[in-house]
Amino acid sequence: MNDVFMNTYHRLPVVFTHGQGSWLFDTAGKRYLDWTAGIAVNCLGHNYPPLVQAITEQAQRLIHVSNYYQTDTTAAFAQELVAACAPVGMKKVFLANSGAEANEGACKIARKYSLDRYGTGRHTIISLKGSFHGRTITTLSVTGQEHLHQNFGPFTEGFRFIPSGESAALDRALDSTVCALLIEPIQGEGGIVPQPLDFMAEAARLCAERDILLICDEIQSGIGRTGTFLACQQYQIKPDIITLAKGLAGGIPVGAVLAGEKAAAVFQEGDHGSTFGGNALAAAAGRVVLRTVKEPAFLAAIERKGKAIQDGIRAWNNPAITQVRGRGLMIGVDTVSHVMPILEWALSHGLLILSAGQRTLRFLPPYTISDEEISAGLAILQEYF
Ligand SMILES: Cc1ncc(COP(=O)(O)O)c(C=O)c1O
Questions:
Q1: pLDDT tens profile 148-185
Q2: What digits encode the pLDDT tens for the residues 185-216?
Q3: Are 173 and 210 in contact (CB under 8 A)?
Q4: Of 8, 104, 219, 274, which is best to mutate to test ligand 1, by the most ligand atoms within 8 angstroms of its C-beta?
Q5: Of ligand 1's atoms, which has the minimum distance to the CA of residue 246?
Q6: Are residues 234 and 303 in the same domain?
Q7: Which CATH number does the domain housing residue 345 bear?
Q8: Residue identifier of the C-alpha nearest atom 9 of ligand 1
């Protein structure tokens, strides 16, 4: 292991050299079943041939031009992405490079929307306790986890938090100082916590009634992860803004802020920008992801595979596991003990899994995982439990 990296991650003792499908290979040639997909990024698995072909061809043709121009590939990708999100009312997109950058853009749109209509003093953004929205100073400021609000102050002003899933608190919080409500339909880093259906319906109703923008952070839950293209489709709500990143280009960095009718025209020339945002290489990869994931049969398979994992674990009836939950291939498993030793044990037995908090195991396998690979992963985990 190389020690020149800043000490920001609890890195496990392995160095990978290549991947194939649901498998990663280390420097010693040992293979590992990957139930992390780069934290919901490599959604089509490693070395997915159509993705590799698309980025190879694009790299040979054109990698990047400034966003003062369009490329054929980025224009097509943007159009296809907006079309994929049209069922929940999205009209326009801004392309960025990461989830944090997408959420920064969303916060800027929300503040300007309100300023344009109502003047100053209505800039507060409400988000949920337990949420995670990024690592920049502003996206940390809107992240509802106290332990992340240390060391880096002063933080950006104008963010307040309410408990996840509590409609009465929501009603009280959405007052005349508020321009937006930012919600992950299913909290990822916070422990795989799906918001209740009635809470999301109430959030959409109150936001519409008070002209407060509803922003859904679908950076982890979007792009098919939960068995529908967007998780908010399962809630039958139409947010005003959606943020995406992670799986959107299957491993090439990209982020997106999508806006519906109300917010689509808020940004005007010079209001926002991003040097790399949505460059042709990322867009070529994103087009492959979109055309693969939007197929109903592909989404149905994600749902089925997720159910197989959840049912498999529940069938053990093991008292060391207190709850199994999630949607599609975004799965959380609560354990009675700390999860880090389980991650380390799984690694040594050839299985890569994640945590979400101290007592929740998190599984985010690639959508292309096979039934045999699901059984193989379950067999390794069962050996531990
Ligand atoms: C829901 C959510 N929002 C935002 C982010 C930040 O994304 P990025 O790490 O690409 O900045 C993450 C990353 O884990 C996330 O899960």
A1: 999 999 999 999 999 999 999 999 999 999 999 999 99
A2: 999 999 999 999 999 999 999 999 999 999 99
A3: no
A4: 219
A5: 10
A6: no
A7: 3.90.1150.10
A8: 99
